[in-house]
Write a structure and sequence with these properties.
Layout lengths: L2 E6 L7 H9 L4 E5 L13 E6 L12 H14 L4 E4 L1 H9 L4 E16 L15 E12 L6 E5 L7 E4 L2 E4 L7 H11 L13 H5 L2 H20 L4
Parallel strand pairs: 1-2, 1-3, 3-4, 4-9
Antiparallel strand pairs: 5-6, 5-7, 7-8, 8-9
Length: 233
Amino acid sequence: MSKIIIFRYEETNGPGYFGEFLQKNDIEYHVVKVDKHEPVPSSIDGAAAFVFMGGVMSANDELDWIPQTLDLIRDAQRNDIPMLGHCLGGQLICRALGGTVSKNPVPEIGWLPIEVVKDDHTPQWCHSLPSALHVFHWHNETFSIPQNARHVFKGTTCCNQGFQLGKTLALQFHLEILPQMVKDWARLFLDESHPASASIQSRRDMLDQIAEKSDSSMKAAERIYSFWCSNLP
């Protein structure tokens, strides 16, 4: 049976809630630990889908695995294989599909609101979501919306929060986040280089009512992941 292939770029940024969702629904997956120098597959053969997680690096960095990943994404898109990107993963998908990744006007760190883009082209599955979602962010860069893709999520301080192209869904935010991941990231990565602002939360605000914030995020994740998994073979 084909498995979902998940690419991890940092030990602290694994599948998270997405992995729990797959386990709960008896969907098989395999994690490629790029952070441990496990190789990017040279072929799409045998994969049911590809999922790309987040990381501290930029999609524009000159890392040996990035060109290989972009080639894999292009091949998967040509062959109508479902793909899902979280933050860095969404940016990699954007680059591979002809878009650009650039510095966002401000960093976004913490629990911040996004909205569903409501227009004549809004995908039907988006109508099952609340108009506004409160989700977790940790990024300095943003992606453009590639040609022919649908802009599905937007934000105030970062306009492009998600796009869909066929069976591919790219997200700028961390839908996979779990409470322990937030605590780990805040402890490991939040320092004086991230002064609190309208788009950067303090550690205290980030962890305040974390159970309620995570529960709301995971309810949205259930719906979004359910839609994406409906495209699996």
